Amino acid sequence: MSGARRLLSASADASVKLWGDSDSPLATLSGHEMSVNTVDWSSEASVVVSGSRDCTLRLWDAQSSREVGKAKVLRNVVTSLRVCPGRNAVVQCSEDLRIRVWSTSSGSLREEAKISSGPNQLICCDVCPDGNYVIAGSKGFSRENCQLHLYDLRHLREVVAVPSFDQTIEGVAWLNSTTVLAASKDCHVRTFAVQGFQEIQELNDFGPEANPFTCCCLLENGNVAVGGSGPHISILQYS
Fold it and tell me: Which end of the chain offers a freer environment for a tag, N or C, measured as fewer CB atoms within 10 Å?
């Protein structure tokens, strides 16, 4: 959560927690019935959105921690979601091979559109700063299936999909309008040009002791953070 020393976490205990500087959470958002896989925060609308294996998205008031909206779709096991910059909307990926766009403008969740995501499950996603495109990474056990995908939200279609790693892509993030970051279970973190997903840079060189990466993000100072199955979060320089 930008603008304050705050952190949101999604947990296998079916809760979302808001953290500050102490070891105890500032708030616990309870309501999901299964593991919460993903959570994001909209500073413009002052809401938190979470997605779970219980096939629901839930909307929470960030100030009161009260649930204000819920949407459930059969087989919509939510793997990742992101709030769209500049608009009251949320994009989510699901195990049912769909990308869904939800409106939050009325203070509730209303499905606006959906896009077929292809034959492989999408595990992570991020929305372009202008709100027009979504980058996503897919699950797989070979390079053929571990693809970076680009979707056009204006025309509701896939633009391109390119094999990019040897194992599941667990984290993606826009660095700017032309460059994206991706992290994989194959222990690699790379940047790519959006145009054709040509690789630009390998950001890590941890050698044979590297742990599989499971998430990544852009920090306010321009560096990137990546986390994995090990006990540490790594901060990497990006130029």
Answer: C
pTM of the model: 0.92
Spatial distance between the Cα atoms of 103 and 121, rounded to a whole number of angstroms? 23
CB atoms within 10 A of CB 9: 12
* List of the chain residues with pLDDT < 50: none
Tally of CB atoms within 10 A around 77: 19
CA proximity to 104, closest of 39, 14, 42:
42
Residue with tokens 């700017």: 176
Tokens of 83: 């709030």
CA distance 111 to 221: 35
Q: How large is the greatest C-alpha to C-alpha distance in the chain, in angstroms? A: 50
Q: Tens digits of per-residue pLDDT, 36-49? A: 999 999 877 689 99
* Token pair in block for residue 174: 């826009």
Distance CA 6, CA 171 (A): 21
